[in-house]
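Action item from last meeting closed. Structure (290 res):
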């Protein structure tokens, strides 16, 4: 076994594929491939992953991405219909001339591989997004500098997380029992210092098993993980994209938006929030950006 190898853990029945980030004689540090999970294990507990298993997991990941695109396409059609209904129906030419202005996303990600996939998917979904790879521990300071420059409508703060293993069951309400939740919490607080209005700046924060309650109390609109379960790598993107294309006239239906994720209400939750999507009428002669 060496750094970069793909492995599973025997003690967990090989449920999740990890990449070895670092390895010593007695301990290995692992990052999930399709789940935003940090873990560690003794090298003896690791098992190499077959090419067939890797292919199967990649296929499953792509299917979930394709399904997300399909669902999102349906949402965009509904948004377009609502846009037409909000302009004068007696003026067909005018109804065709409005301009769609979805909310802008600033996506901070602790994993460069996930960030690349997310940026590709944002582009496919026509969501204006800026992505930055930054280690979870540096997110608060980086966000402090980026927010005034980027001026986003939506901030995604994600990467990897997990409960720290110890003797017995960890106290899930103790923030110190998480590998990165404290970093996410500090980043959310920085974002809320920049803009305290939860509708003008929507924050989506957390990763696998993150401290859901602490993130909401810090100021997040949506957070993981209410049941301390694993969340899919694309789940934060799905929520951000739905917010981006939900009208500012509408309150997001929490159960609806969360049920479109792979993890569901066990993996993500949130508070009542308005969308960030706006209509411009008449359509500008030059291109506009949020």
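Sequence:
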């Amino acid at each position: 076994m060496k750094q970069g190898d793909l492995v599973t853990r025997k003690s967990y029945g090989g449920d999740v594929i990890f990449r070895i980030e670092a390895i010593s004689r007695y301990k290995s540090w692992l990052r999930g491939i399709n789940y935003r999970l940090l873990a560690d294990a003794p090298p003896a507990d690791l098992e190499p992953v077959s090419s067939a298993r890797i292919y199967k997991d990649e296929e499953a990941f792509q299917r979930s991405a394709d399904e997300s695109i399909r669902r999102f396409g349906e949402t965009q059609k509904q948004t377009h219909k609502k846009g037409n209904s909000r302009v004068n129906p007696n003026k067909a030419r005018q109804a065709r001339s409005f301009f769609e202005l979805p909310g802008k996303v600033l996506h901070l990600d602790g994993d460069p591989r996930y960030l690349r996939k997310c940026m590709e998917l944002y582009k496919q979904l026509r969501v204006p997004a800026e992505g930055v790879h930054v280690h979870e521990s540096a997110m608060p300071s980086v966000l402090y500098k980026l927010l005034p420059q980027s001026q986003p409508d939506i901030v995604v703060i994600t990467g990897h997380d997990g409960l720290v293993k110890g003797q017995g069951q960890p106290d899930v309400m103790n923030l110190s029992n998480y590998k990165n939740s404290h970093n996410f919490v500090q980043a959310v607080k920085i974002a809320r210092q920049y803009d305290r209005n939860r509708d003008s700046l929507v924050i989506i924060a957390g990763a696998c098993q993150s401290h859901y309650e602490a993130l909401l109390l810090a100021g997040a609109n949506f957070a993981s993980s209410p049941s301390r379960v694993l969340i899919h790598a694309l789940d934060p993107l799905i929520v951000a994209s739905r917010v981006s294309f939900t009208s500012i006239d509408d309150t997001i239906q929490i159960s609806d938006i969360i049920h479109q994720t792979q993890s569901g209400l066990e993996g993500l939750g949130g508070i009542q929030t308005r969308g960030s999507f706006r209509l411009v009428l008449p359509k500008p002669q030059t291109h506009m950006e949020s």
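Note appended to the action item: The longest strand covers residues 18-23.
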